[in-house]
Specification:
By secondary structure, the protein is of the alpha/beta class. It is built from ten helices and five strands.
């Protein structure tokens, strides 16, 4: 079991909200807040000195909003997991954020337990979709996808890559996939990287979205 402390950053322009989230996270074992910022621009400045594993990112902020910040993070800090915090439930927005590289989406009125689950999930698995967000994304995809889907062979996926893709969509960790397929973690990561490259996805969350769009997996 990995005993590494998960380092979290909070980016939101409301100081009281940041403080409230920090107090909640302080009660989670093995998770600590190491960075706070009022907007995306301040976050990028602070990241030059300290880089968290997961960033909780508000959508509506002055100077640099959550969308632009997500794009910048994917460009300059691809290893950071981005968990969007918002009150918005618009399906197209949620789908778009996943496509540009967000790892998860959680509503600001979520229970503390869900915050903990979301942080651990994006850190360990690379994505977090709760039931309502999954429903919104699927509806958003249905509205958006008008062209005929490509078949799997167009992406030249091997049978092993298809197996790994299915397990990723089920939420299994690298270690769990390796145990199930009798492969090393290094080999699993190799297949994951091949999938990201072949489907032109920025991260695991975007990979799942693309696989659903192209009918490579069903949910």
């Amino acid at each position: 079991m990995n005993n590494k402390t998960i380092k979290v950053g909070i980016t939101d322009d409301h100081a009281l909200f940041r403080e409230g989230v920090k107090l909640i996270i302080d009660n989670f074992e093995g998770i600590e807040v190491i960075l706070e910022a009022e907007n995306g621009r301040e976050l990028l400045t602070k990241l030059k000195n300290e880089v968290p594993d997961v960033i909780l990112l508000d959508l509506e902020m002055p100077e640099m909003d959550g969308i632009e910040t997500t794009q910048k993070l994917r460009e300059y800090y691809p290893d950071i997991k981005v968990l969007i915090l918002s009150m918005h439930k618009e399906e197209r927005m949620i789908t778009y954020l996943m496509e540009i590289g967000a790892n998860g989406y959680i509503l600001k009125d979520a229970a503390p337990g869900e915050f903990e689950e979301a942080i651990r999930s994006v850190y360990e698995k690379g994505f977090y979709f709760n039931e309502s967000v999954s429903f919104a994304m699927l509806n958003g995809l249905k509205d958006k996808t008008k062209k005929p889907p490509k078949i799997g062979k167009d992406y030249h996926l091997t049978s092993r890559e298809m197996e790994v893709l299915a397990l990723i969509a089920q939420g299994l960790t690298t270690a769990e996939m390796g145990e199930k397929l009798f492969l090393s973690s290094r080999t699993i990561e190799g297949h994951r990287n091949n999938l990201l490259s072949k489907l032109d996805a920025k991260n695991t969350a975007a990979l799942i979205i693309k696989a659903i769009q192209e009918k490579l997996i069903t949910v």
